[in-house]
Amino acid sequence: MAEQNLATVAVTGATGALGSRIAARLADRGASQLLVARDPSRLPDLPGAQHRGPATYEDTAAMRTALAGASTLVLISSHPTGKRLEEHASAVQAGMEVGIDRVLYVSLIGAGPTATYRNARDHWLTEQFLDLSGVRHTTFRSGFYASTPAALADEEFVIRGPGGSGPESGRVAFVTHDDIAAAITNVALGDSTDHDGAVLDVTGPEALTLDEAVPRIATATGRPYRYEAETLEEAFARRWRLGISGEQIEAWISWYQAIAGGELSAVTDVVPRLTGSPATPITESGWWPSPKTAW
Ligand SMILES: NC(=O)c1ccc[n+]([C@@H]2O[C@H](COP(=O)([O-])OP(=O)(O)OC[C@H]3O[C@@H](n4cnc5c(N)ncnc54)[C@H](OP(=O)(O)O)[C@@H]3O)[C@@H](O)[C@H]2O)c1
């Protein structure tokens, strides 16, 4: 397919799971890109890609140097630090100062100031900042990753949390990193203004309860993953005994609660519409992190 716009794309977070997939797809399509990292020695070597950095989002001067020469910025959200708004604002500000004229921001589904999932709340702040900034932008609210349940399992492959149980419990449309990367890559390489200002919920193809999703992961992997619903009190007590911080306890309990409450059950057409292919079912995710590796 002939690309309409081969202007340079800067990809942050390119040492990570999502950014590296976007970078690989951009390289496959012959794009010119700047890969930005805190530690550039960990960046992949790709045709058409320059390594930039070291640059952390919060270091505006380093980000200015790293982003110089790009017109589109793919901004992968940072890890939850309590300062994500400031970090993202710094990166966007730096980009605007050196000529970035479009930002594609990776937000999280359900982003909102009162979102049940704790880590979804500050994404909304970044979305507000982008609206105020005046820069062209598109927000991709990624669904919950298909890889996360495997990473949350313990050594016995048990995934425990207050995510509800039974056919009436809440559902979640898990989405693969590759589908999100494909959708973002296609928008990055197009010159259409159709997605300017859009907030796109990027979901998988079906909404499943955890009772349904986890056995599918077991079938796909041949490993004995199973889900055990916990009460809120059980969820708190077990994590506390494991020595997990209050902030992390709240984050993980709220991940399950958001599912149980049905906040993630929407299935959208964003992946098929932007990529031309159906969204990937969880059974075909193909990436199953080791137990106990959730961030
Ligand atoms: N939708 C979901 O279910 C879900 C699940 C988990 C996370 N997330 C969010 O989605 C983002 C991308 O997911 P992922 O799977 O690609 O995560 P990942 O593999 O942890 O990658 C995150 C990337 O962001 C970079 N980064 C983080 N903080 C930064 C900062 N302050 N300045 C510069 N770079 C920074 C990391 O750099 P280093 O390599 O130097 O650490 C890494 O390259 C995560 O960062 C998180 O905000 C979403």
UniProtKB/TrEMBL annotation:
Coiled coil: none annotated. This is Uncharacterized protein YbjT (DUF2867 family). InterPro entries: NAD(P)-bd_dom, NAD(P)-bd_dom_sf, NmrA-type_oxidoreductase. Pfam families: NAD_binding_10. Residues 13-186 form the NAD(P)-binding domain.
